[in-house]
């Protein structure tokens, strides 16, 4: 933070460098927002940056009037503010809601005196003509997200504060106010404020979507990404006539839409024969192409929340009173699993989903922890599908399934002729393939240390250099990593880099094992329904009881295999316990016609009993079993202890039929 003299000198010199008059400085918003605001403060409002400043505040009665005048905004913003506050308050941040006049009409504050500033309480006035350059006021002037870092504030009095604000628009694209996340911390890094600004912008987008969906709750709504955290929303009636567009959609489609009169959706997009029956497609994700050779957009179509009238021709003014037949949901097999599907009825998973939705759009890396088969990969795909990057690629890379020698080329790519056997044109690698989308690093705990170092460099620099190429490439990816390992133990044993852990653990999600979930029965029935499809097969009560009593060491993956096998074994319309090849204790009974599988723990080593080969194999098997036990089942750690490569150890595990 600068001292008073340096603060004043910086503001005056920067503002004076602008050659345009104050009324034209809005054109400089992308070049130098702060300098344009400082010039307005000096020449338009006649402020002195060194002056002592007392923030204006209104009485409780006046604050109540401001709140009542913005009742709808407060109502729809409240749940989103509450949800976001849980994520940011731990770091000392507070959230406030400003109306169009710049008054704070609601707040969720972290009252820790180390971070909280009394000047930002409800009722205070932050319009730029009242308080100089600040996030709320300057955001309302600019009509776009603004971050104001410490000495970016015009008045030195506020230089310990850092704030990030994003504008809030009505369903008809009119400016209503601003949402603000702030902290009193003179040491806050500017890079941190950039991340917070992304969170604020995502929060504003979600609030705007809540209001839009309520206003057009009797219409079909198309949702598509217009930026890293912004979404366009288009409301249409059953005849594909435009009913409403939010601010982001209008900005993106301004050259294609005549908002003065109702126009067909097909004036914007190329006609798509799949959309003949909107009720059937509600909930589907589609790719639509803009007219006249325009870009392709990934669009999520949702159906009406309430039923409209028989008449299908109406405008935005009629939207609040027109009924329509509700959309029929897609069958489970016809759509991707969503975050809500992953959460089911389990309280821990619902909390996980709420947390993930708070941080989506902020580019925080996400680390998923959980047992094998618990659904980490499905959760990762659901995160991507709900994120602003869902129009980009989802690239999965299993760090344990690729030999150590190939991870470098597979993940980071390679140039032409980088090594013997390389493709002539080279390979971009998974990191580059995921550019603009999501990279899912499964089994990250099994990545070799050397590759961990390279990955850390890529994540910190945002650049990847393929093997055999000196040309780095800039990439922008959302990283979701997953592991069933205990990374703290891995770090303690020197098998995992601590700095990489902290780089990946932006948001840590614990996926509970299936046996601990409160919604086991619902999940069993959902997986069964998906596998059965349209076949007329039901689960008998004794089958459900058997499934509920099983400990499920393989979690949801094991459940899918067990049910799929049972469906094929079932000979009638009711799947019964006898069709399911498990017992509650976990040992699988085999039907009379089945070929018995070897029991891992009692498998005999190769060679004739008493022979030297048998003795050596038995000793090797015992060494592997005891080492695995010492390493808690961690194959990578056991391979290091045995001085074997993981590929060799996996072959020996298979050879000796050792469970791991």
Automatic annotation (TrEMBL):
One of its GO terms (biological process) is phosphorelay signal transduction system. Residues 342-568 form the Sigma-54 factor interaction domain. One of its GO terms (molecular function) is sequence-specific DNA binding. PROSITE patterns: SIGMA54_INTERACT_1 (PS00675), SIGMA54_INTERACT_2 (PS00676), SIGMA54_INTERACT_3 (PS00688), SIGMA54_INTERACT_4 (PS50045). InterPro entries: AAA+_ATPase (IPR003593), AAA_lid_NorR (IPR058031), GAF (IPR003018), GAF-like_dom_sf (IPR029016), Homeodomain-like_sf (IPR009057), HTH_Fis (IPR002197), P-loop_NTPase (IPR027417), Sigma_54_int (IPR002078). It holds the Pfam family HTH_8. The keyword Nucleotide-binding applies. Keywords: Activator, ATP-binding, DNA-binding, Nucleotide-binding, Transcription, Transcription regulation, Two-component regulatory system. This is Sigma-54-dependent Fis family transcriptional regulator. It comes from Ancylobacter mangrovi.
